[in-house]
Amino acid sequence: MSADLVLWRNARLVTLAGERDWGLVEAGALLTRGAQIEWAGALVDLHAEVPAALRARVAAEHDLGGALVTPGLVDCHTHLVYGGQRAREFELRLHGASYEDIARAGGGIRSTVAATRAASDDALFASAHQRALTLMREGMTTLEVKSGYGLALEHERRCLATARRLGNELPLTVRTTYLAAHAVPPEFDGRPDDYVDALCGWLPALNAEGLVDAVDAFCERIGFTPGQTRRVFEAARALGLPVKLHAEQLSDQGGAELAAQFGALSCDHLEHLSPLGEHAMRAAGTVAVLLPGAFYFLRDTQLPPVAALRQAGVPMALATDHNPGSSPALSLLLMLHMGCTLFRLTPEEALRGVTVNGALALGLTDRGRLVAGQRADFVAWELEHPNELAYWFGRNPCARVVFGGALRDA
Ligand SMILES: [Zn+2]
Predict the structure, then answer these.
(1) Which end of the chain is more exposed for a tag (fewer CB within 10 A), N or C?
(2) Phi, psi of 226, rounded to the nearest 5 degrees
(3) How crowded is residue 344: how many other Cβ atoms within 10 Å of its Cβ?
(4) Residue of 109, 129, 248, 122 lying closest to 180 (CA atoms)
């Protein structure tokens, strides 16, 4: 038999193996085969738990130096691919304009749409690549990227293809989400229903090109109505694509109930989520993706109902919502911190939110825990205890990142 296993020893594992607790394993080790974890546990148990024939196949060993090791981090909600940036708008808001004022005045998303359409493929890729590298330096190994700044077939295709290229050229996993229902483009001014018809019509071609893993919409007063959102979801369902929703960020539109009817992978934002929406999500197994970066940046005061979600047993994830308008955040660790300080998550909930539950929000059950059979994405941290991941801010304790069994220094 060939020697094809790798032993990673001298690690303090944060396995998240059960439904509760960190699943800490002192003096731990991981045995990986290719991109997969073959075994995880205390090194002293290796002989008893792993057959000799398998142990004989260990080709390489790495000493992790006693580092704390967690699953690789998942950023399950980003708008990473776009042209330009919106620091000027940030400045205007500090002179008193609101997010809605700016959107209604034709700024906001539309200015990024213009910059995205004007950017070359290589320029779009280069800026997104830099941002992805920044996230990876903090242990991010799986990244969701939404379209939604092209808003025309050709440009939505370019944005999704740019996201795919990131996944091909970097060691991380990229999941793409079609979010043409992000805003009404200038060509469809005053005709949102015609635009919804158009974007539903683009979906089969983009899906056939392998560019779409999920479909999302912005259901909001300044976005799309529940009726329009339903049509987008029906187009997705016709192709067997899972859906997600930007729901109840600025007002309660009943978006979560609608999304739950379609078995949505996640509802995201949820500051104005009602008890009805919460129960529908619970029944549908929909993940609540909380986005403290946007809450913070927009200086929102309406908190998402974290205690009720916890009580109902709705899985909670955290993400950067990286976008140029409302969350120019490039630190998933900062989101852990803010998830605790602003939303009152526990540090363990915050870590689950960027690992196992973040993966679930993308429909991925093959990662997020350090147990046999899971993907070998993991991070070595210069920390004593996993609660420090949420405690420090402005510090990057990431020492090494392993993507699918392959080591890469941070
Ligand atoms: Zn978003």
Answers:
(1) N
(2) -60, -35
(3) 12
(4) 109
374 DSSP assignment: S
Q: Which of 164, 263, 267, 282 is nearest to 218 (CA)?
A: 267
Cα(66) to centroid of ligand 1, in Å? 37
In angstroms, how far is CA 231 from the centroid of its own chain? 24
> Of residues 409 and 51, which shows the higher confidence score?
51
Backbone phi and psi for residue 224, each to the nearest 5 degrees, phi listed first = -115, 150
Beta bridge partners of 39: 31
Nearest to 101 by CA among 237, 250, 271, 257: 250
Q: Which residue has tokens 């929703």?
A: 245
Give me the chain's average pLDDT, please: 96
Nearest to 296 by CA among 337, 354, 349: 337
Residue with tokens 């090791």: 69
Contact 340/390 with Cβ under 8 angstroms? yes
Largest Cα–Cα distance of the chain, in whole Å?
70
Per-residue pLDDT tens digits for 278-331: 999 999 999 999 999 999 998 999 999 999 999 999 999 999 999 999 999 999
Distance of CA 187 to the CA centre of its chain: 30
Q: How remote is the CA of residue 294 from the centroid of ligand 1, in Å?
A: 9
Q: Output the CA 291–ligand 1 centroid distance in Å.
A: 8
3-state secondary structure of 121: helix
**Residue 145 Cα to ligand 1 middle (Å):** 10
